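Technical note accompanying the year-one report. For the benefit of new consortium partners, we illustrate the data format agreed upon in the data management plan: each record pairs a sequence with a structure-token string. No post-processing was applied to the example shown here.
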Amino acid sequence: MDEVFRALADPTRRSLLDELQREDGQTLGALEQHASMTRFGVMKHLRVLEQAGLITTRRRGREKLHFLNPVPIRLVHDRWVSKYAEPWAATLTGLKRDLETEGLMEKVFEIYIKTTPERLWEAITDPALRARYTFGAGVESDWTTGSTYRASAQDGANGEVPISAGENLEVDAPRRLVQSFNALWGEDVKAEGTSRVTWEIEPVGDSCRLTVTHDQLREGANDQLYGGWPMILSGLKTLLETGEDLTTPGSLMYQDR
């Protein structure tokens, strides 16, 4: 977390994040046009932001695209702010702008967790563990390529609430999971149709880098589809590193009712 504050302390780096907030998924050349410094200077600042986890990069053909990653900001929120002002979460997690690719949006989230790939995979696929950080919703599947999955939660007198469903398009434990995604918790999100979620696990020393990409979203899609990812990933990190549940109101949405 110290790296996050050091990165944000510099006004040039904050302006680069502002530019990615305005338009996500930009190349170095595009970002350079908005900075009053050399290309090398912009590269140095981007490297600091990437080391702090505030941006993540992805190659598309010969281009290297830069995405604003709101997860570290969410972790700051969960540590100091959520107890007093949970409604601010929507603002903090709304930092990312739409990346337009043939009329579709892509959202990329990245977090480092001190755990093993096997333990992280278990937390993603085990229904009881999954429910502890995905708003009380467990996921049932046999986790084979081509199989289906279904997520649901218990909501007191209302009984079981369907949350999402889809197909496991690619299953490569404990490295990669690609799923189609259909939101079911409300008529407005049902109307959005099918999108795709990719979980990628990469060992880094005694930790893992988890990248979640939610793509094939229509331009201007309901932000309920992707706005909860920072809280979900923060809850996953808290669970695996401390054994405790994240206690923000959103994380407890369907628990203990």
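Partners are asked to follow this layout when depositing records. Residues 74-242 form a domain with the Alpha-D-Glucose-1,6-Bisphosphate; Chain A, domain 4 fold (CATH 3.30.530.20).
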